[in-house]
Write a structure and sequence with these properties.
93 residues; alpha+beta; Glutaredoxin; 4-stranded mixed β-sheet; 3 helices; 28% helix; 18% strand; binds FE2/S2 (inorganic) cluster; Thioredoxin-like_sf; 2Fe-2S ferredoxin
Length: 93
């Protein structure tokens, strides 16, 4: 079962974290848990989004990008490589 944590702390909030969590809540399938999170320790790169249990991180997520994450990652199980947080998901090439 997937859980998506969306940082709602100061720096991410300034970047629109409330709209990002709202988009996940309206678009994600019912079986996915959507959770607000306190600071994820990556301030300045927000809005930070963490998908559990696989620990997949997305940075600088904008509300208009949430639909793609929902369709491709949460529904089809294919994380969107181009949007991943490079600090924790360095490119393999
Ligand atoms: S405020 Fe979002 S990672 Fe720190």
């Amino acid at each position: 079962m997937l859980t998506v944590r969306i940082c709602q702390h100061q720096s991410c909030r300034k970047k629109g974290a409330a709209k990002v969590i709202q988009a996940f809540r309206s678009l994600a399938p019912a079986e996915v848990t959507i959770e607000p999170s306190s600071c994820l320790g990556q301030c300045g790169n927000g809005v930070m989004v963490l998908v559990l249990p696989d620990q997949i991180w997305y940075d600088r997520v904008r509300p208009e990008e949430v639909g793609a994450i929902v369709d491709r990652h949460l529904i089809r199980g294919e994380p969107i490589r181009a949007m991943l947080y490079r600090k924790f998901h360095p490119t393999q090439t």
